[in-house]
Structure formats: structure tokens, C-alpha cells
Amino acid sequence: MKARFFYSAAILIFFGAMYLVTKAFDLMNRPSNGAVSGGILIILALFVLVPSALAWVWHHHVTPHGKITQKQEERTDA
Known about the structure:
By secondary structure, this protein is mainly alpha-helical.
């Protein structure tokens, strides 16, 4: 289940980033200075957001959230 979550989230992030890159290049092709700076801003934001989103997904892929082990149960009973 966790592997499917990771792969589907990574695919969604990849295709979402590709969509935003194409929109950013479309903005940079326009003659307006504001559109060019908006396209550059989108690409710079992607350089920050895509690796952090992948790190978040990977963290939830490898970290066992919501599982209580026998040792944790014994500590809370005492």
C-alpha cells in the first residue's frame, strides 16, 4: 500500500511540475516583462517545491505512521 502511495504521488508531482514548466515557458514567450518574470518565478518555485514535496512523500513512505508496536503498548500501560 505504501509503495503505491509513493509511486502515485511521485507521478502526480512529476506531471504537475511538467505542466507548470510548460505554463512558465509559455509566460516567458510573451512580450510583457511581467509575464517573463512570472514564468521565471514559477520555475524558481519549482526548484524549491518539487524536491521538498518528494522528500515529504518519501518520509511518509519509509516512516511507519500509525503503527503501535508491542513495546510502545507496554510503555503506555505502565
